[in-house]
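Ticket #4471: structure export looks truncated?
Reporter: QA, pipeline team
Priority: medium

Steps to reproduce: submit the single chain below to the structure queue and open the exported record.
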Amino acid sequence: MTSPSTRAGPEHATLIPRDILFGNPEKVSPQISPDGRFLAYIAPDSRNVLQVWLRELKGGATDPDQILTNDAKRGIRSFFWTYLPSCLIYLQDSDGDENFHLFSVNTETRDTKDLTPFKGVRAQLVAVE
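Actual output as written to the record:
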């Protein structure tokens, strides 16, 4: 005879919430800038859209982390530091067509530039050195 704790069946199954399985992570992909001054990572904003966030790494700093990107729709999934400590690049798919554009953003001025401003073109990062 089996005990109640070892029985299997729908009345004893607990479903894992969809948000746990398919929701956004709290923080992911941490990367330190080439000069060691910043930590960048991906996390959701107040609208639950994934953005690149920036934290300054200075001794005892209590400054709040800042959002570096401002994607309104699909969120940022990958980013990379360049050899310039104040320049970060990221890929963004704005229309769901998998035609990613490559953007650069300046960590000091927050200026963002589409480096591949062509329709119907998909940018892909092959290597970072």
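Status: closed, not a bug. The export was complete when the record was re-opened. Leaving a note from the reviewer for reference: The longest helix spans residues 18-22.
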